[in-house]
């Protein structure tokens, strides 16, 4: 293992890499992972479980910090920027030229690394021969943490606060003599990302950059796309399998936002899946990877949903091709007495208190320690307008993206609607199967939304997120509609009444019917893998406390202490924690508030730094208000070396 190697960019900047080489020596294919999360400490524990295994299997593994992060030089500008991607191409060229590389390179990554693996494949650098992309997106506007269905996600602010905290961390003094000068420059130039992203509320060129769905034909490297049902990034794997013109296989298990061998939800053998893919496309082994089913998926069934991690119920199935001939559209009609086989006349009003959504869970499970999964939806269902089927007389299996097509009118120029599909047991326990919001001003286009004329009738469609679920006989399929879904979705500026016109409102279900299953080739349990033997100084812990203030404001306070550990390779002790608060009054959507505080500490011998960041976002019917504060403290005597505050006001427009 080479603890640090400098890779020089064409303009002279150096990016920091950690490298694992096969013990056998000689030229080998390489696996490249490219992140802003600090190879030295941030992902060191995870890297031990992946790259060391791949090096043992005959691959040179290269883990690189993006410019301006970790130990790399330069300044960070934005996620998936032209600088990041052009630097990535330069790194690929550098790797291919090393004596220990045979010129064949694969990219691997989850989330950020899953994104830029696809994005670099889109640019067609010659050395890149295969990609494994986990928990990623093909459309940065439609399926990321910023917007969904044209609605602003509260995760836009939350992720921006986390990224800001990440970007304020210094390079390691053991590797960078200029660490302090560079650290101050990072602090002074840290982007106000939430503001930058909110200045692009429609699907403009900003979001099209890095969205590989703009031209599927540009990706020429074979892609293995993986995610989990507890992860928010569920739409990309089947979309890639359906649209790429090169070998592509999709897999969705029960997992959260995590490499599957590290999942707290039925962990699986990720290593064998990855090595089979890379062995085929980087080593040329005829191992049948190209003959795998197009879509392997864990079909879930009803379990006792809880915000805490626990076992799932379901089974693995496979579809040889995707889209599959085994999935057909079934149409149900929205009626005053539920979901029916025939259309009915009339209207139904949907209007919800602003705090509905308290059982929806954390947007991206896997980022916190615990207390982050969707719970029993019954409390939110009670505040929603619900359309139920009769109890099923036989099981119903869903695989794909349900669609809600509906006609509506509204009493305000800006409004939103959120659709949830739930599996309701005979005992009344409601388990969310899938959901998706729609900013109704986007009824015709995410590129050119328009203010709504009160009373005018419009038609819209919501393609809910990908799902795979089997409802048992006796259970009820429920469509729950609401005009808010806090705290996942930032609410519209006022309490709207959305009137559904039932004669033109239908639910389209992707019903899977198979008489004979093919072997699902499920990944099986994880193999043994190495673990970083870090010394734990403080254990991790997590709390989640919903409560209501005297004036009726509904509050969710969360705290995650990620603990403190000492890295055995270089002796640095790293600790971090985060507090978050979401608050809203049920009668006033414009009362929504998000606040967070991130703290990091780094220490080795007499060297110590502490970074404290505070963020808040609030609104009124016309504007969003964002504020942040960053403090940096150096030395055991805790001298403040940097303190700055920023405030921004953003017009709401049609959000």
UniProtKB/TrEMBL annotation:
Keyword Hydrolase: yes
Membrane spanning stretches: none
SUPFAM superfamilies tied to this protein: alpha/beta-Hydrolases (SSF53474), Galactose-binding domain-like (SSF49785)
Domain of life: Bacteria
Keyword terms of this UniProt record: Hydrolase
Xaa-Pro dipeptidyl-peptidase C-terminal domain location: 275-508
Record GO terms (molecular function): hydrolase activity
The keyword Hydrolase belongs to this UniProt entry's keyword annotation: yes
InterPro entries in UniProt: AB_hydrolase_fold, CocE/Ser_esterase, Galactose-bd-like_sf, Xaa-Pro-like_dom, Xaa-Pro_dipept_C, Xaa-Pro_dipeptidyl-ppase/CocE
Descriptive protein name: CocE/NonD family hydrolase
Organism: Mesorhizobium cantuariense
């Amino acid at each position: 293992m080479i603890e640090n190697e400098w890779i020089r960019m064409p303009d002279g900047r150096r990016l920091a890499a950690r490298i694992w080489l096969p013990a056998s020596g000689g030229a080998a294919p390489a696996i490249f992972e490219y992140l802003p999360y600090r190879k030295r400490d941030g992902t060191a524990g995870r890297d031990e479980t992946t790259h060391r295994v791949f090096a043992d299997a005959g691959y040179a593994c290269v883990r690189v910090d993006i410019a301006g992060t970790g130990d790399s030089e330069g300044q960070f500008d934005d996620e998936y920027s032209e600088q990041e991607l052009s630097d990535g191409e330069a790194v690929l060229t550098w790797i291919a030229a090393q004596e220990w590389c045979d010129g064949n390179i694969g990219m691997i990554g989850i989330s950020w690394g899953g994104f830029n693996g696809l994005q670099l494949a889109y640019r067609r650098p010659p050395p890149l021969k295969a990609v494994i992309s986990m928990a990623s997106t093909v459309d940065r506007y439609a399926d990321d943490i910023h917007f969904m269905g044209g609605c602003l996600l509260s995760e836009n602010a939350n992720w921006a606060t986390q990224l800001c905290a990440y970007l304020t961390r210094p390079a390691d003094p053991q590797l960078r003599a200029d660490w302090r000068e560079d650290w101050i420059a990072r602090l002074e130039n840290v982007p106000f990302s939430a503001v930058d992203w909110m200045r692009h509320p429609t699907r403009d060129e900003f979001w099209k950059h890095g969205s590989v769905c703009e031209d599927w034909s540009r990706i020429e490297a074979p892609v293995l796309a993986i995610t989990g049902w507890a992860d928010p990034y569920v739409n990309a794997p089947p979309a890639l399998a359906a649209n790429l013109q090169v070998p592509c296989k999709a897999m969705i298990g029960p997992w959260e936002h995590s490499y599957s061998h590290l999942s707290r939800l039925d962990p699986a053998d990720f290593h064998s899946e990855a090595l089979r893919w890379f062995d085929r496309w980087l080593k040329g082994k005829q191992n049948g990877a190209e003959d795998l089913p197009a879509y392997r998926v864990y079909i879930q069934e009803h379990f006792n949903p809880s915000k805490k991690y626990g076992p799932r119920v379901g089974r693995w199935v496979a579809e040889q091709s995707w889209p599959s001939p085994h999935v057909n559209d079934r149409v149900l009609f929205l009626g005053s007495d539920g979901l029916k086989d025939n259309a009915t006349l009339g209207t139904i009003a949907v209007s919800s208190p602003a705090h509905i959504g308290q059982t929806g869970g954390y947007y991206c499970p896997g980022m916190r320690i615990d207390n982050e999964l969707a719970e029993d939806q019954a409390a939110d269902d009670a505040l929603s307008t619900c359309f139920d089927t009769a109890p099923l007389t036989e099981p119903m299996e869903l695989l794909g993206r349900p669609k809600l097509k509906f006609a509506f009118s509204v009493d305000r120029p800006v409004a939103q609607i959120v659709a949830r599909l739930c599996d309701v047991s005979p005992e009344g326990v409601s388990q969310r199967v899938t959901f998706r919001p729609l900013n109704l001003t986007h009824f015709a286009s995410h590129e050119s939304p328009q203010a709504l004329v009160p009373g005018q009738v419009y038609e819209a469609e919501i393609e809910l997120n990908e799902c795979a679920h089997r409802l048992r006989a006796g259970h009820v399929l429920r469509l729950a509609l609401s005009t808010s879904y806090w705290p996942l979705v930032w609410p519209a500026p006022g309490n709207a009444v959305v009137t559904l016109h039932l004669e033109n409102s239908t639910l389209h279900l992707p019903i899977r019917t198979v008489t004979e299953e093919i072997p699902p080739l499920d990944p099986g349990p994880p193999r043994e893998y190495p673990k970083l033997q870090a010394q734990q100084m403080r254990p991790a812990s997590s709390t989640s406390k919903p409560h209501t203030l005297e004036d009726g404001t509904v509050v969710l306070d969360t705290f995650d202490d990620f603990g403190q550990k000492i890295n055995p390779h270089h002796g640095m002790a790293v600790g971090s924690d985060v507090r978050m608060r979401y608050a809203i009054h049920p009668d006033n959507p414009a009362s929504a508030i998000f606040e967070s505080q991130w703290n990091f500490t780094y220490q080795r011998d007499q060297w110590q730094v502490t970074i404290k960041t505070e963020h808040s976002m609030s609104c009124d019917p016309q504007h969003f208000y964002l504020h942040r504060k960053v403090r940096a403290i150096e030395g055991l005597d805790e001298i403040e070396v940097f303190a700055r505050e920023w405030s921004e006001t953003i017009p709401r427009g049609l959000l």
